[in-house]
Amino acid sequence: MQQNRLQIKGMSHQLPPAMCGDGECSRIVNLRCRDGIWEAVGEPRLLYTPEETSRKVIFLHCNEAYKHYISYDGTNLYFEAEEKDGEVFPTGLEALCEIFGLSRIESVGNTLVVITDTEIFYLLYRNGIYEILGTRPDMPEISFYLGGSIQSTEIFDTYTLKVETRDDGVCRLSDTDKRAFISWIYGTYSKCKSKLLSDGYFAHPFLVRYALRMYDGSYILPSPPVVMLQSDKADTLNNIEALCELEDGYLRRFVENKFNLRGESLYYNIGKCDLSKWSDIVTGIDVFISKEIPVVKQVAMTENDYRYEIRNIGGKQTRIIIFDVPQLTEEEVRRRLSEEVVFFKVASFSGKEQIAQPFSLEYNCDLNNLEQQDVLPLDNFSHHRITAKTSYVYNGRLHLGGISMYYSSGFPLSVFALTQNRYNGVDLIDIDVQRGYIEVYMNGSDGERRLVNSFESRMSLKGLSSMISYPDSRAYKMKVRIYDDVGGKQYGITVDLKSSQDQNMAYYVSPDLKPITFTEISEPDESKIPEEINAVEHTPNKLRVSQINNPFVFPQEFTYILSGGEITDLAAATAALSQGQYGEFPLYVFTTEGIWALQQGSEGVLYSNQHPVNREVCLSSNLIVPIDNAVVYLSEQGVMALQGAESNLLSPVFGGVPDALPQDSSDGDSISLSEDFVPFRKYIQGKCTAGYNYIRQEIIFLNADYRFCYVLGLSFSSWYCRIVDWKYLYNLYPGLLAGDESGRLYDLCSEVQSDMQISVITRPIKLLPDIYKRVSHIALRCSVQRADLVCKVWGAQEAEGRYSLLYRFRIAGDVPGQIRMRPVSPPFKYHRIAWCGTVSSDAHFDVIDLGFDPVSSGKKLR
Questions:
Q1: In degrees, to the nearest 5, what angle opens at C-alpha 423 toward C-alphas 421 and 424?
Q2: What's the pTM value of the predicted model, to 2 decimals?
Q3: What's the pLDDT tens digit per position in 255-295?
Q4: Theoretical Cys-Cys bridge with 653: which of 496, 630, 638, 710, CB 3.0 to 4.6 Å?
């Protein structure tokens, strides 16, 4: 007689029955492998039972001070319960808000980020409740204008010519004096200009913008650059006169004289501003201005810039030089205004100021030293709404993958509107407006777009600033229509937009910097608001990352394009690979063309490199699970572990169809060995999700359509099944929760010991390949204090043939060390062993010992 000891190896269908290893099982139900021993699983601890069974806990908002359970009933979001001292208590609160098309929920600090098919929605937890913020604050409508003219006067000192110039009635200055004299005048001009700025007045064109300042100092929703021009046309600095002094027939000096420069102060008017809900997020509104356009050129005068006259002053023939200061042309001023990208912070206000009241801007700096001020970042992308297919919070940053961008409908008309009665020397006439719209045409990668910003509010509109814009450089045309319904008139403008080379903006600047005024439409249209066309752009391979600890701001420099496919999920290992080492790549991006890794950058660079790790495609984004030192995912090869830049096979995926079970494989009311266990590849389709039990080191695959789940124990790469009523899993490092149809929530990392129904059936046992064996005794090494088990043995001539029941034995009560089975039967090539029933929580099954005699042609070998 020969003896053989079989180690119970877990479930497998990888190889055909005739080739499988002895000890592999077709079914293992409710037993897990620990240190090579199979123990009964416990019942997960019931954590919470909801009052309304229609609600499903879908997110846990965890912070240092609290753990909140957020539920969803398909329409409404609820602050369902909170955990205190390990116990979960219902809040009894009403619904937080309606959410349609809910995709995912993330949290950063006290902020809940609700991601839907069409938008990102924010809720803030403060003072014991969740406050609904919405998608983003409304952009305040603030208009600026210049007024309150003053004049600055300086005396330019007497200038002594450096090169003798004969008084011949022509007075041709040397090149040296042309340069030196204009520099002399420029110094006086600079004094006037500096004095005006010190007093808060501006002499030349400049641009003004404002933006919402966030709690971390970042900015969103910057206003368009608006050109500030004085009411009257600015001083041209032409025809400036100076008396000349002569000596011995030579022109020696230009006598001191007055130099005047006029300036106006900056005012603002708040037309619309309500930031009350966002008061903890938006801490203020900051105003930024560009430097004044340097109208005066620091170049030498030409012969055309001055002339020489003789006048009778007080009965005396007096020589006078009349000169023009070299200046930029209007076209050069227009160009510099349109190219300006540097805006300095000069003032701040809370946004709570009184509406519709003009205020003189109070500066928090010296306007002569703008270089020392903070600069507005060049980022107009916050005007566009985004949502994403997948999301992940890592290192305090919200990562969004598979971006859909809903383009802004444009800036409110009021931010371009002029409020003064005169602008750059042009008188303005009021138009009484009740409604209107701005229509913007844009080129897109998937065709032409049309964006529409409509309004219905009464306003008195005089005209628009000489520069209007849209926050995207691909826009090429803007049409504005306004309606005076009382007077029965329509007005409009249509302009071509030019793409900015320096920022994400398309703009129009009027000729001669005149105000943009409306023309009455002689043949009014039907006054219908046009519909937007193609207003959303899908970029499935784009990744956008927020500011640290700020899920509201996604700087454009934190945008990455990965592969040519689609981003399906994001993940990172949750613990160090070794002490202080987190691997070469901290963040993994799963795409339809393989897996990419983003390497941590430095010195302001978030991710310095992006590399493809491999070309494997994950079978489902729901089956990606971060564990302590790796990221586990499912591919065609099997269950893979991604560590650093390498992928390792943890376990092959079950292939083919599970083994057919012998007849009479069911007994009484115990778990049936013939339970409908579908193939693993079919099981993972559809609603299947995965979770990681850190305490047990198990990966659980759960499909809500079935009454069981597949479990992979990582310690011994062993598979088993578990009978469950769970419908979903929720990963919460280091825990794992599950919920059932009624909304009950279970803690899978905390099990309650109780009697458990189990079942095991081996795959065909060969012992010696292709040889008949007569098995005389079987010992199932185990220990159970309390059991009610049925044990069976079958035999067959073919691995996939018909099996005959050779032995059936029922045992109840205490099983101290083994279960003995002594089948008496003819010899067979293949045997299968099964046991099923109820066991106490201490049950464990170790190995199977078999005694057998090989036989040849049905005769016993000697």
A1: 150
A2: 0.88
A3: 888 888 899 999 998 888 889 899 999 999 999 999 999 88
A4: 638
